[in-house]
Amino acid sequence: MTDKLYAGIDAGGTEFKCIVAGGPDQVRAHQKIPVTYPEATLVACRDFFLRAQAEHGDFAALGIASFGPVDLRRDSPTYGFITSTPKPHWVDTDLVGYFEQVLGLPIHFDTDVNGALLAEQRWGAAQGLHSAVYVTIGTGIGAGVMVDGNLLHGAMHPEAGHMLVPRYPGDPFPGVCPYHGGCLEGLAAGPALQQRWQQNPKALPDGHAAWELQAHYLAMMCMNLALTYSPQRIVLGGGVMERAELLPMIRRAYLAQINGYLGDQKAVMESFITTPGLGSMAGALGAIALAQSP
Amino acid sequence: MTDKLYAGIDAGGTEFKCIVAGGPDQVRAHQKIPVTYPEATLVACRDFFLRAQAEHGDFAALGIASFGPVDLRRDSPTYGFITSTPKPHWVDTDLVGYFEQVLGLPIHFDTDVNGALLAEQRWGAAQGLHSAVYVTIGTGIGAGVMVDGNLLHGAMHPEAGHMLVPRYPGDPFPGVCPYHGGCLEGLAAGPALQQRWQQNPKALPDGHAAWELQAHYLAMMCMNLALTYSPQRIVLGGGVMERAELLPMIRRAYLAQINGYLGDQKAVMESFITTPGLGSMAGALGAIALAQSP
Predict the structure, then answer these.
(1) pLDDT greater than 80 at residue A207
(2) Which end of chain B is less enclosed by CB atoms within 10 A, N or C?
(3) Choices 3.40.50.300, 3.30.420.40, 3.20.20.70, 3.90.1300.10: CATH for A127-275
(4) In terms of CATH architecture, what is B6-114+281-291?
(5) Model's pTM, two decimal places?
(6) Which residues of chain A have a CB within 8 Å of the CB of B162?
(7) Which residues of chain A make contact with B219, given a CB cutoff of 8 A?
């Protein structure tokens, strides 16, 4: 553990969670700031950190785990920007530049899902693993990926939530993704559930056909993630996964689909596909984990 | 460039290509050795290298790029083995151990597709890139992956050829994968083409419906690869890609499917999805590229 204090921002689409901490057991201050206009939201974050600094002392670094798409290429003129988001007012917002200027700290910047994965890998459900995937299934579907000890970025960052998967037999739902219709996110994120069943997914009872379809789509996602990234573990989070009966259904459907191709995984399914260990703190602690990166 | 000589084995399912080289322009000796029984094949490789050593001098290292599945975990008791292959006699064959014993060289071991990718990245169609995917579409479908400058391994190694993709509308073919039926390999590798159209794929004329379906499946594969790995380039090789009309059809189908989600890729398609630069030498040079790894 460390005695140093770190600042973190879990920059979500509806609120920015600001945190000052040394780790999960050393949270000194935190505050949720609503996402309105960049000027208002960012200034409120700055003010929170300046107050916390006056009270708790200096921070070693700031971690920002942001909704995307974001520009992570350090040699890019728009490094540290939220780029082509559909969110009004937030296109081309220079997060890293702003906080460098007002806080004068080293900044570590990554996607929200890569942050959450790093926190889970350090303190949660993926501790000590070198290769793991964290997927959030909520208003969208996004994946953070660590392979061989490194967070995966590539040319931009993964957008695995938009992968194409086969239809559940006979499923006529066209999907709701504005780009792809029935890609995974278009078929299986929260808004797809809402649109398909014409009600709030939380109101759908256990045993409803909705969960059979949902398990099918998320199991095929897990199979494609397992085959492409070769992870030691897949952690499934986000609002949709709060439905407790879903996880065992996904595991069963995964085993049926993969059919032993990656060896006999039956005995290890409970650890291979699992849920987050840090609960609602994964996002904010993700920003702290990023801040602590070398 | 280097003055050192390296030894390489492109360990394929039907023949082992042995090579002694300093790089693509400094090939000193090479020989194809048929795959029969491990004892016979491995001894013939050893004899080739001992003769080449007597003639050309010592090698700095040996690279082995092998068909799989293979065990790449350095801390595993079966590191360096071909593991659960369906190929008769070759289950649990200790490639690295054998050549360490008979040649006494440092050995770099990886999958055939990771080797081919590394050669393409060093000398071929992916030069200077930090993130790229090489896919062979032949008797099977396999992918080698480099992300952020590192070959991707994970818990085992990617098996992206078995990913699930949506059906071409109305396609009734069940697929030929013994594990998954209609996974990508089951629908779009050479044996699937043969089985679906009941003739040698090479005999199918340009303009045949086969190529429309084939382009559809490979375009969806490229979309899933682009979304999961975020590569700068996807290199498509293997026997099936020798059909020249396929590449532009795949590019068109990819653009239609991804629908601008990763930005306007029209202008860069010729470099984003392309074919290998090293031709039939990619495999053997892959073994040399592995041998030269730090």
Answers:
(1) yes
(2) C
(3) 3.30.420.40
(4) 2-Layer Sandwich (3.30)
(5) 0.96
(6) 227, 261
(7) none
